[in-house]
Design a protein that fits this description.
17% helix, alpha+beta, 1 helix, 71 residues
């Protein structure tokens, strides 16, 4: 997660319609760090964000997730 920190920037979202959802589409979510960082940056600008993914990698029992928690 540290490696991806600061990788994304959001431009001016002041004209983004607040009743419109911004959707991030990710082809494969492994640790979730990429979508978490992109979502964090957009949400900090006030964008309502949803993430859609085509595939999600399963974690082995006890493996840490992107938040540092265990499953």
């Amino acid at each position: 997660r540290t490696n991806i920190r600061g990788a994304f920037r959001a431009g001016d979202l002041s004209r983004w319609p607040r009743d419109r959802m911004l959707v991030l589409v990710e082809d494969q979510v492994t640790s979730g760090a990429t979508v978490l960082e992109a979502t964090r940056v957009l949400a900090a600008r006030g964008a309502p964000v949803r993430v859609w993914c085509a595939a999600r990698a399963a974690r082995a029992p006890g493996q840490l997730d992107a938040h540092g928690g265990r499953n």
